[in-house]
Amino acid sequence: MRVLAAMSGGVDSAVAAARAAEAGHDVTGVHLALSKNPQTYRSGARGCCTLEDSRDARRAADIIGIPFYVWDMSERFHNDVVEDFLSEYSEGRTPNPCLRCNEKIKFEAVLDRAMALGFDAVVTGHYAQLTDGILRRAVDPGKDQSYVLAVLTRQQLAHSMFPLGDTPKEEVREEAERRGLAVARKPDSHDICFIADGDTRGFLNRKLGEKPGEFIDATTGEAVGEHRGSHQFTIGQRHGLGLGRPAADGKPRYVLSITPVDNTVTVGPKEALQVDTIHTKTPVWLDGQARTAAFDCEVQLRAHGEVYPAHVTPTDTGLTARLAKPAYGVAAGQALVVYQPQDPDDVVIASGTITATESPALVEAATNAN
């Protein structure tokens, strides 16, 4: 097959490209330039978005012996990822920019262009298994990326390759060393690539501006402090609140909800963060079987987060998941990913964007108040 290898400049994508070439595919490497001015994004050799990364990707392609190109995706990245990130925070939601980048850039814009150029598939260094169009967890649970790939459609998965899903990360690094790839011990990328200094709050303030508002105590309804913009916070946040008045019981307060309309941030005890029901919109069915009846499964609410047994009910607009045990600090804008436990590796069934949650603690408090 003619295969386009997306090469970020890190070890994973380099080894994935090398494996595809070794398997006999006609491989072409491509690095995605995500900023007109790379210095405005994160600096340092971390595996994505920088000038160093572009050079590392080119050197890896030379060693593998494949053609290499740089594609300018900066405008699409800015519109679909950066602007989406800002818009979501301004609406009181907490987005996952890496998930959005996979959806809109790596497996929509890139795949569309690759198919138009006559390629059969796109290969990446993601840790997930793909067999006969079915997405499964990677064998390395610590590196599994099936959660951030669960936004892909079956059509996109049909033209995708993930060669690393069956290999632990340390073995990938050892293989890179044997292949003579200079990125073998390059650190993984963890930060948001378009926030150069890692200061998310400062980035949001610069882009969205400061807008003073109040913290409201969920228990008393009283204002207990002031902030400089509700977009600075996310559900479950404890540190950096700067509250002027301590809670009556002396316990720490957490962000429970964000209301951009009046720019208020409601805070309260940790127990009030409990969530037992989650609602989503726009479900994507990855196994080709859109359900209409309720079913038992497992759900994951964050990348590398805890897995919860759940009873999921399809609705007219999305999915409703009732958890067997409460989760804490679930934010709208994140993804709920549905798994069917199977031996040896879980199968990804569906995903949906979280729109609302229900808290048993808040329901009980309201009942007692009445």
Automatic annotation (TrEMBL):
Q: Does the keyword tRNA processing apply?
A: yes
The UniProt record lists the EC number as 2.8.1.13
Q: Which reaction equation describes what this protein catalyses? A: S-sulfanyl-L-cysteinyl-[protein] + uridine(34) in tRNA + AH2 + ATP = 2-thiouridine(34) in tRNA + L-cysteinyl-[protein] + A + AMP + diphosphate + H(+)
Q: Which UniProt keywords apply?
A: ATP-binding, Cytoplasm, Disulfide bond, Nucleotide-binding, RNA-binding, Transferase, tRNA processing, tRNA-binding
Output the GO biological process annotations, alphabetical, semicolon-separated: tRNA wobble position uridine thiolation
Region of interest (Interaction with tRNA), residue spans: 143-145
Q: Which residues form the active site?
A: C101 (nucleophile), C193 (cysteine persulfide intermediate)
Q: Which GO terms describe its cellular component?
A: cytoplasm
Domain tRNA-specific 2-thiouridylase MnmA-like central, by residue range, is: 202-268
All copies of the tRNA-specific 2-thiouridylase MnmA-like C-terminal domain together span 276-354
User: Which locations, inside or outside the cell, does it occupy?
Assistant: Cytoplasm
Q: Does the keyword Cytoplasm apply?
A: yes
EC supergroup of this enzyme = transferase
The record's annotation in Pfam families points to: tRNA_Me_trans, tRNA_Me_trans_C, tRNA_Me_trans_M
Listed GO molecular functions? ATP binding; tRNA binding; tRNA-uridine 2-sulfurtransferase activity
Q: Which family does it belong to?
A: Belongs to the MnmA/TRMU family.
PANTHER family according to UniProt? MITOCHONDRIAL TRNA-SPECIFIC 2-THIOURIDYLASE 1, TRNA 5-METHYLAMINOMETHYL-2-THIOURIDYLATE -METHYLTRANSFERASE
Q: What does this protein do?
A: Catalyzes the 2-thiolation of uridine at the wobble position (U34) of tRNA, leading to the formation of s(2)U34.
Report the protein name in the record: tRNA-specific 2-thiouridylase MnmA
